Amino acid sequence: MPKSTARAGGVTAPVQTSTPSRAAPSVRGWRDYALLLALACCWSSTYPLTKIALGSIPPVTFISARSLIAALFLLVVLRIRGIRVPTDMKAWKLFAFQQTINSTIPFLVITWAQQFVQASHTVVLASTTPIFAFLITWAITRHEPASPVKLLGAILGLAGTVAIIGLDALSGFGKEIVAEIAILLATVSFACATIFGLRLSDYDPMVVAAGSLLFGGTVLLPAALILEHPWTLHPTPQALVATVTMGIFSSALGLMLFYMCLTRLGTLATNAQAYLRIPIGVALSVVLIGESVPSNLALGLVLVMAGVAAMTVPGDVIKRALGRLRG
């Protein structure tokens, strides 16, 4: 991947750039898939850590706190690396819009909807992001190939998610139709964010993550102060540890890996980590908060891995494999 220099706050520093076409690379190595797995591990911790933190910290305060903690962590690392966050308006407009559609709005919407929708329903609905990303790519943007194999992968991944959560998770859909539609709209927002995020590939992924998180946390801070009076709260030590851990691990490292995956794998393959998050999140929930292991975990995991493979393995590799089978 070519390197160029970009002026950031008066300091010239090397940044990673992508080709103008923004197309996903056709050749991928084990490092690309390791990044995807690392991203899934970071974001899958969201499920149990959020459950722990929200026990004594209200949602807006929690989202703002974890975003600001993540931004502070990344800003310190950037300072050590000798790279400054850009100060020009163009960069901050990009950061602000990306954070709004990738985190601020969807997180608030899903948090509100979870008051009415069961957790299992939320997981299934939120797992439709790769399907929406495929449809948007195929029908509108066409910035990378949207093959039938990738659509099959998206459907297999969703089927694996349902299998892991349990088929009984499908019962009761439609009872809280407004909240369920809200979750679907939030996942559409996530899908759009992965596509728009390609416009940020000229910036260092850590710079994008730091700027986006700083904007998101700062925007929500006044609402948290006015609505939830965080100075009156008495969070448990577990909630504080969960918030800090989620800020550094899930938000800071996760968002940085997200932009790295976008540049290296493209939007459709990056979205495939949504399915990997389910089995990893279930495993973390068992370890951290003692939830039970779903009976269909093995079947769901097979479907999830098949779906992720279909969405991430380059088309020419699949064609060669099918050719060998026919021969």
TrEMBL record:
<feature type="transmembrane region" description="Helical">
    <location>
        <begin position="207"/>
        <end position="227"/>
    </location>
</feature>
<keyword id="KW-0472">Membrane</keyword>
<feature type="transmembrane region" description="Helical">
    <location>
        <begin position="60"/>
        <end position="80"/>
    </location>
</feature>
<protein>
    <recommendedName>
        <fullName>EamA domain-containing protein</fullName>
    </recommendedName>
</protein>
<feature type="transmembrane region" description="Helical">
    <location>
        <begin position="297"/>
        <end position="318"/>
    </location>
</feature>
<feature type="transmembrane region" description="Helical">
    <location>
        <begin position="92"/>
        <end position="113"/>
    </location>
</feature>
<feature type="transmembrane region" description="Helical">
    <location>
        <begin position="239"/>
        <end position="262"/>
    </location>
</feature>
<dbReference type="InterPro" id="IPR037185">
    <property type="entry name" value="EmrE-like"/>
</dbReference>
<feature type="domain" description="EamA">
    <location>
        <begin position="179"/>
        <end position="311"/>
    </location>
</feature>
<feature type="region of interest" description="Disordered">
    <location>
        <begin position="1"/>
        <end position="23"/>
    </location>
</feature>
<feature type="transmembrane region" description="Helical">
    <location>
        <begin position="274"/>
        <end position="291"/>
    </location>
</feature>
<dbReference type="InterPro" id="IPR000620">
    <property type="entry name" value="EamA_dom"/>
</dbReference>
<dbReference type="Pfam" id="PF00892">
    <property type="entry name" value="EamA"/>
</dbReference>
<feature type="transmembrane region" description="Helical">
    <location>
        <begin position="119"/>
        <end position="139"/>
    </location>
</feature>
<dbReference type="GO" id="GO:0016020">
    <property type="term" value="C:membrane"/>
</dbReference>
<feature type="domain" description="EamA">
    <location>
        <begin position="34"/>
        <end position="165"/>
    </location>
</feature>
<feature type="transmembrane region" description="Helical">
    <location>
        <begin position="177"/>
        <end position="200"/>
    </location>
</feature>
<keyword id="KW-0812">Transmembrane</keyword>
<keyword id="KW-1133">Transmembrane helix</keyword>
<feature type="transmembrane region" description="Helical">
    <location>
        <begin position="151"/>
        <end position="171"/>
    </location>
</feature>
<dbReference type="InterPro" id="IPR050638">
    <property type="entry name" value="AA-Vitamin_Transporters"/>
</dbReference>
